[in-house]
Amino acid sequence: MTAYWTDDQPGPLRLIPSFRGELVDLGEFTAATIALRDPSGTTIEEAGTVTLDEETGEAVVTWAHPLFTEPGYWTAQLTLTADGIRLRADMFAIIVETDDGWYTLGQARAEWPDAPAGDDAADAALYRLLTIAKRDVLAYYAKELDGRPPAELVEAQRAESRELLNIGIVDSAANQVGEGEFVLARSSWTMSPEIRRLIRPATGVPVVA
């Protein structure tokens, strides 16, 4: 999976497009364009230019700058054209991370050996887990954060991500978040007491003699 940091100015991205999971032979096409959507679903006009490398069979995307200014889950899609042919390739994801004190993909995997890993689907699954866990932690914390989160909330995010994964590898069902192998069945989930105590530590009650 392609991943950047906010405000990166990445070099050209080389990829072999696919269509319904099968690699596309670019020899049939003469031109290509790219559509990029930010985390809110807004299409970014003139996101970049695409050239087709006949020798390697790759599409080469040269991004416009500045571009990746917002963290989140971006999507991109190539449209390949030739005389009388127009093919929209499979969408691919771009994760844009920021240094805000919460877990990044790399930090999560460094401290969580069983975190999803190995391919683009695993990257997307881990990002969704971290994002949903962060939202859950902040909802239970129920206070405004002033700056970076304290260590207890970050640890709660990691623990909640693991809990979500442990209960969330299920078949497709109603009331779910995600797709493919990693699907979170929200109706069957509640935050554990241990994670709640990380977010809101119990306050001792003084004993009056």
In short, what is this structure?
The chain is of the alpha+beta class and 209 residues long. It is built from four helices and 13 strands.
Separation of the first and last Cα atoms: 62 Å
What is the CATH architecture descriptor of the largest domain? Sandwich
Number of helices: 4
Number of strand elements = 13
What can be said about the biggest beta sheet?
6 strands, mixed
Which topology of the largest domain does CATH recognise?
Immunoglobulin-like
> How many domains?
2
Query: Looking at the chains present, what oligomeric state does this protein adopt?
Result: single chain
Shape: elongated
Name the helicity range. Answer: 25-40%
Rg calculated over all Cα atoms: 21 Å
Overall structural class, as computed from helix and strand content, comes to alpha+beta
Name the helix and strand elements from N-terminus to C-terminus, one letter apiece. Answer: EEEEEEEEEEEHHHEEH
Low-confidence stretches: 170-181
Look at the structure and give the CATH class of the largest domain.
Mainly Beta
The amount of beta strand, in percent, is 25-35%
- The overall pLDDT, averaged over residues, is 86
